Amino acid sequence: xxxxxxxxxxxxxxxxGQGTSGPDRADRRNRERRVTPLERALRDRIRAEGPITxxxxxxxxxxxxxxxxxxxxxxxxxxxxxEISQMFGELIGACLADCWARxxxxxGAAYVELGPGRxxxxxxxxxxxxxxxxxxxxxxxETSPVLRKAQADAVPGAQWHDSVDALxxxxxxxxxxxxxxxxxxxxxxxxxxxxxxxxxxxxxxxRDFNIVEDSPSRxxxxxxxxxxxSDTGGAAIVIDYGHARSAAGETxxxxxxxxxxxxxxxxxxxxxxxHVDFEAVSRAASAAGAAVTPVTTQGAWLxxxxxxxxxxxxxxxxxERADExxxxxxxxxxxxAMGELFKVIAIHAPDWPAPAGFE
Length: 359
Description:
Layout: H1 26-31, H2 37-49, E1 52-53, H3 54-67, H4 81-84, H5 86-102, E2 110-114, H6 120-131, E3 137-141, H7 145-154, E4 159-161, E5 172-177, E6 186-189, E7 192-193, E8 195-199, E9 202-205, E10 211-214, H8 216-232, E11 234-243, E12 253-256, E13 259-261, E14 271-273, E15 276-277, H9 278-287, E16 291-292, E17 296-297, H10 298-305, H11 307-317, H12 322-333, E18 342-348
Parallel strand pairs: 2-3, 2-5, 3-4, 5-11, 11-15
Antiparallel strand pairs: 1-8, 6-7, 6-10, 8-9, 11-18, 12-13, 12-14, 16-18, 17-18
Helix pairs in contact: 5-6, 8-9, 11-12
C-alpha cells in the first residue's frame, strides 16, 4: 500500500483519537461504528477459541480485504507508485533489462511480480524491456480474483501462481513493490505476545505499551525467493516503506479511503500494513545464499536510474503535461513524499551482477 499524505510516523493512538485502544476504551469505540461481517466472524472465533495473535488478525483481515475488492486508485483506499507515473515502471524495466544483458542475456528469463496490483507497473516495465531486446514470459504471484482480472486486462498472456515456490525453474527478473508490507507481523509487549480480544462487545488489544514487532512471514518469503534466485539465476528488486535498520516500536497501521484509520475498526474493509525491516530482509536473503546490495532510498535510486532525464523527455513530448510530470517526479523522489520513507534493496544470484542504481 502507499502511505497517505498524513505523517506516516505518528503513533496510531493519534489517529482520530482512537488508535491502539485497550479494553477500557473498547465500549466507546464499538458504539460509534458499524460491525463488518469479518468482525462478527472474528468475535465468534475469539469467544470460541480464545484471544488471537496480532499476526492471525492481520492475516485474516488482509485475506478478506484483497479477495473482495480492487483497493487501488481514487475510488479505492490507496495509490501506489506505478499509478503515479509511467516513469516508475519504465525505469524498473530498463534496470532489469540492463541486469539481464550484463549477465550474458541468458535464455528463458522470466519477469515475475509479487502482488502486481492492476498490472500497471508490469505493463510499463515490459514495454521498456522489449525496447531493450528482452521479451520475457510473465508470471504473477497473486491470489486475489479481483486483481487477477485487472492484471489480465493490462498484461495479456501473463500466468498466475499462488506462491513463489510455483514459479518456473528459469532465471527470474523479480519485482516486489509494496508486497512485504502486507505480510503479517507479530507484536510483543515486554516479551509477551500481543493479542486481540473481545471487550465491550467489540475487538481490542490486550496490551498497549512497549510494543516491538517481527515478521516470520516476511523472513520466510524473502528466504524462499532468495533461494530460488540463487538456484536458477536472476535478480530481485524489493521496494517498500520501512526502516533501513532494525528498530523497536509499533508500525502496524490501517488505511481506508486514502487516510489512516484505527487498526481494529472495520476488519476486512481497510488495508493493514507494517513497516518493512530492511536489515532483516538483507539477513534473510544472505542466509539463503543470495548476494544482497546495500539498502538505498527510492528517491536516490530513481535519480541514479535517470528519472530526471526521463521526465525531461516526457515533458518535451507533451509540454502541456509539464506540471503533471514534475509533480509525479517530486512525489516519487522528494524526501518529504515517498523519496525517503520508501527503501529499495536488490537480491541477486552470486554469479549475476547487481542491478543498477545501488551504491
